[in-house]
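Give me structure tokens for this 308-residue protein.
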Amino acid sequence: MSLLCVGEMLIDFTPLFGMRDSYTANPGGAPANVAVCAARSGVKAGFLGKMGNDDFGKMLAGVLNKEGVEMLVPELTDEATTTLAFVTLDISGDRSFTFARKPGADLLLSEDDVEKVDFSQWTFLHAGSVSQSGLPERDAVLLALQKAKDKGLIVSFDINYRDKIWSVEDCKKEVDRVLPYVDLLKFSEEELVFVGGEDGLADTMEKYGIKVTVMTRGKDGARIFYKGDTIDIDPLQVRPIDTTAAGDAFWGGFLASLLQNDVSKLSDLTPEILEKAGRYGSVAGGLCVQKPGGIPALPTKEQIERLL
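Here you go.
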């Protein structure tokens, strides 16, 4: 039972509390966050993506090695530097990003890299829309989703829209290309436009054959849509200081819980298993927002289970 995440890993420059215009470098990137969160919950995890052959890329490779996440592209590239993201936090701890990525190393993931992967060794594959914003990574990730689907993996996708990277229209165009391969879809309440709004969500799921969708709702928790029914998940009541990677912590916990409950094919899903996964993910996200940074804030299985 294992999870392969494909896409970007980067450096989040997170504001230092109490120090104006000062930042610290933290490992991040949504698919990498999901992989590490799952690994910390005891799930075998892998990461398929590229980092630069620079100090930041070496730092990120060291993080994956320390966390026990398998690097499927172990070579660091000399063709571009590791992607950087500068985080801005408002008074409520909500974050926004500014990217240094023209191009960043993550965009250089190629179809040749994907062809080397033995997808039969994995149970789930997860990706997100940031990887669809440039070439050759866009085609590489699409190929990975196609191969995963052909091999019978459960495919997960996070819409994860970033307005500093591209427009809603451009992002939606690429998301629509991906959705036919997706089994489990995650999006935030602000991303309902990508799925036709809440009233049009059922039609979107039917059109693309998506089995489960999950909408994260910040301080209001999450809502799971499955077979025409909804399951509301309560949030962990906390005061956030940094929401960076909160959705990734939720989703990494959610997918880890499914794997821990022996979900290896879509017919294994039940409302009870999905609700359990939602509660596990909710606690993971609630713990994450109480610490600064992306990967450094992700909780362990023991920390999550203590609060369940």
